[in-house]
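chain below, 118 aa
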Amino acid sequence: MKQIEQLYVNDTGMAFFWREQERVISGKVQLVFKETGFYFTIDELDRFLTLIADACRRNHACESCAMKNKCHKFLLKTPVKQIDLAVSMHELEGIKDLVEGALFKAQLHDYLFGLGRN
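prediction:
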């Protein structure tokens, strides 16, 4: 029996819904990257995307650097107030893609199996 319903995967990590018996638990998304896992609601995942966009704006100084996004690490805030992540710009781009992909697939799943059903 399959225990997860995969939403999105990239080189940084993966996002999925958990399954309980034959039912997909679509209220929360499990987001896993590096050695870290978060179990976010869709609203928290959306908030995380906003925090990632803020971090991208604050830390865009790598454009003129020879190391280009590979050396500097900074703290990325998460929707969990007590937890920040130390990431490079390269890692941030991967996390951003992962969260955007997970949100898109989660919202599509909600539409197809929820609001969009006749």
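The CA atoms of residues 47 and 79 lie 6 Å apart. The radius of gyration is 16 Å.
thats it, cya
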